[in-house]
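Chapter review: from sequence to fold.
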Amino acid sequence: MSQQEYRQQFPALADKAYFNYGGQGPMPRVALDAIHQAYDRIQEIGPFSGKSYDWVKQQTQQTREAIANELGVAAATITLTEDVTVGCNIPLWGIDWQPGQHLLLTDCEHQGIVAAVGELQHRFGIEVSIAPLMETLNEGDPVAVLERSLQPNTRLVVLSHILWNTGQVLPLADIVRVCHNFSTHGQPVRVLVDAAQSVGVLPLNLAETGVDFYAFTGHKWWCGPEGAGGLYISPEARACVRPTFIGWRGITIDKKGTPTGYEPGGKQFEIATSAYPLYAGLQAAIDFHHQWGTTEERYDRLCHQSGQLWEKLTQIPQVTCLKAQPPAAGLVSFTIAGGKHQNLVEFLESRNVFVRTILNPNCVRACAHYFTTDTEIDRLVKGIQEFVG
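The token string follows.
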């Protein structure tokens, strides 16, 4: 399949230069068709019937397996959720926090996670501090900064694998090793990762990193439907969390229907009825990416395209890229002279070129995928040049 034929499978990309994969990716036609067909199938066999129940079981297991294969983990370790934030909230609220225990955040986390941590602090009297990782974007050692920020009472570190605002890729395995070696009362400091910008971008083998909790979504770089995501919990970290929201999907029952315990593995954190046809769409989206090449090949191409964008932006005198070197992911954040970033976004969108603003740091973010074309990059660069004129 040629590049042009491949891109034609994404209806949303027609006549657009799209750079918002970090917010939401467009779905390929096969994913849209899979969702429609799944809804039709459920209605044909009866939405509440033995056949539909069997279909749901099959789809959830197949989705778990497809995700696990991409992350390099066992399917039983995957909890199916709606999005990254739900995935992060499972361990955040599932830990039996005690007053005075410490949670370490970075200064580059999404506001949804920051707000959840603030509520934990309010309810349980935990201590929260911020590791200054933004300053390590171009120089410095993020691992050393995090290690210096750990305290004798630290229980959990919360960070992103790829920082959503600057695009910095953190050395996850090194960070996990430092945290696990820094024990608190004989227990390793656990690591929760917001993987919104890394799943569908980086080649992953989570089992080798030792990470404890890894929350992700299917609707960004995987280009799946919104409302389908997941959480990986390592076998070693399983005992650290208990379900907070509980429903029939996560429990076991006896012959009288009385709850007797929880389902094994990641299933215990799933709650109740979901939009199951979305799982079919996510499976189709993941499989569609495989048609282009391996995860490593797609990542190399993605970095090449984001590097092309970075290089051309650096040649515009009024533009300053936050990163001093070509990015190691698809996110390219930059500022323009005068700081009229929202005006730039609106100007570009009027020309069917799509980027977004970030508030902290105050900048514009453009996301290049492996199938982003040189023509799209040129349209974006030309639009910026016209705006800064």
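Two observations follow directly from the output. The first helix runs from residue 3 to 7. The chain has a mean pLDDT of 97.
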